[in-house]
Design brief:
Blueprint lengths: L6 H13 L24 H6 L1 H8 L11 E10 L2 E8 L6 E5 L4 E7 L2 E2 L13 E10 L2 E8 L3 E3 L3 E3 L7 E9 L2 H7 L25 E7 L16 H17 L4 E5 L9 H10 L4 E8 L10 E5 L6 H10 L2 H5 L10 H5 L2 H20 L12 E4 L11 E8 L3 H7 L2 H20 L13
Parallel strand pairs: 1-5, 11-12, 11-13, 13-16, 14-15
Antiparallel strand pairs: 1-2, 2-10, 3-4, 4-7, 6-7, 8-10, 9-10, 14-16
Helix pairs in contact: 5-12, 10-12
């Protein structure tokens, strides 16, 4: 790519600045995908001296990210059963479109871009497009995913040159087809199919003697998770808590902590499990935030792996969390081993017992710093991210972003630090076997 900005690119940036970057990173029927991590903030004096430069830096338009193509427009045109996506870019990009079945989707892959559209078009709900979302899929790769109401045939993507003040325009047409025709052409391109080889077996801990703890911040990248009415996004919340847990654990000098992700990037569920096994982890803790149509429900809970769900709510939650890979458009062709095939292994049974013991330690610790579900705070179901057969694992739901009281607490750094310290405390207690006094009890709901 020519690093010298073209006239359309300059115009594109100016247009975005004038529009205030409204709706940047939104995927409809999904939650906002935050902008890339900004460069260190300018000092107040520097910002005052160069306000335009400060704004450009804040939006990632200067520095390393400034060389990325910018998506400055996204329009969906629906005419009866025909649909057309038009994406406007500052620079031309190479894209690839393909379809996936079960559920039916169209996937548009492209290199890293900055999503800066002022007002993307919402689907009208009457055509073939049910919803769409977009964001970073993994490092170097962005993705637009279209959920379908009906079978479509995808036309070849066309990149049109700048014209009439517009930038480069990518046009993608979706036209009606039969379900049989869609199924016949759906599937992963050969070079994107994931290898199905099992992860390498774990080996003894490194000679440092430190316990290895894997902290998994759920969701990420194109998969935002749930969100609150005020705009708190699950993937950002849990990453903040994960980093705080790491800091607290490493401060003891007894642990080596690895995060499955340390930025806003999507990690497939299977890869999260493999990260824990490859690191020879002694414990895997996956952090999430819950949602519920009954907004009065609040409080943290802890989940462990089981073949049969402990209750209907646990089964629903596991089904929703296990959809993460589908949301991001991940090849699941190798995911054909049921939980039952893992549970029959004696090592897995021992791992499940150790997971359950740690879950009880967490349940005993969290009430000192936050509200915990009063009924059945320890539950179980077939969570895909907890399937490592030799690494004890739990999934902690920190609370409900759909509950006003939980949401207001989660929005504060003080609450996130208290909860992170409590989780760190529980991990240390689990491994040291020490019974220690807990901090002051939190108020009951």
């Amino acid at each position: 790519m020519n690093l010298a900005p073209s006239v359309p690119k300059i115009c594109a940036w100016a247009a975005v600045l004038i529009l205030g970057f409204g709706a940047a990173g939104f995927g409809f029927a999904a939650t906002p995908v935050p902008r890339p991590k900004p460069l260190p903030a300018l000092s107040a004096a520097a910002a005052a001296a160069d306000p335009l430069g400060a704004l450009l830096q804040e939006q990632g338009l200067v520095g390393p990210a400034s060389n990325l193509p910018v998506v400055i427009g996204l329009k969906l045109t629906e005419n009866g059963k025909n649909s057309r996506f038009t994406l406007e870019f500052s620079d031309p990009v190479d894209v690839r479109a393909f379809t996936l079945a079960g559920p039916d989707r169209v996937v548009l892959d492209m290199p890293d871009v900055l999503w800066r559209m002022p007002d993307p078009t919402r689907p009208n709900g009457k055509g073939a497009v049910r919803a769409y979302r977009y964001g970073q899929f993994r490092k170097g790769n962005a993705r637009l995913i279209v959920d379908l109401n009906a079978a479509v045939k995808v036309g070849a993507p066309q990149m049109l040159p700048p014209e009439g003040g517009a930038g480069f325009r990518l046009v993608l047409d979706l036209t009606p087809t039969t379900a049989d025709d869609f199924a016949a052409h759906a599937g992963w391109p050969a070079d994107l199919q994931l290898a199905s080889a099992p992860p390498s077996p774990a080996s003894p801990r490194a000679s440092t003697g430190k316990r290895i703890v894997i902290i998994d911040a759920g969701h990420g990248g194109i998969d935002p998770g749930t969100h609150s009415q005020s705009g708190i996004v699950e993937k950002n919340l849990v990453l903040s808590v994960a980093r705080a847990v790491r800091k607290s654990l490493e401060a003891t000098g007894r642990y080596r902590v690895q995060l499955t992700r340390d930025s806003d990037v999507f990690i497939p569920l299977r890869e999260r499990v493999n990260i824990a096994r490859a690191a020879h982890g002694d414990l895997f803790v996956s952090l999430h935030a819950d949602s519920n149509d009954h907004r009065e429900i609040r409080g943290a809970s802890v989940y462990t792996l089981s073949e049969a769900a402990s209750d209907r709510e646990a089964a629903t939650l596991a089904e929703r969390e296990n959809m993460s890979d589908v949301i991001a458009g991940v090849d699941l062709s190798g995911e054909n081993n049921p939980v039952a095939s893992i549970l029959i292994d004696l090592a897995q049974r021992d791992t499940m017992n150790r997971s359950a013991r740690f879950a009880e330690t967490v349940i005993a610790t969290l009430p000192a710093v936050t509200v915990v579900q009063p009924v059945k705070p320890h539950r179980s179901a077939g969570f895909a991210v907890l399937k490592a057969p030799d690494v004890p694992a739990v999934l902690i739901e920190l609370g409900y972003l759909t509950n006003a009281k939980d949401e207001s607490e989660m929005a504060t750094e003080a609450w996130r630090n208290r909860v992170a310290n409590a989780i760190s405390w529980a991990i240390d207690t689990h491994f040291t076997g020490e019974s220690r006094a807990l901090p002051r009890q939190a108020a009951n709901p």
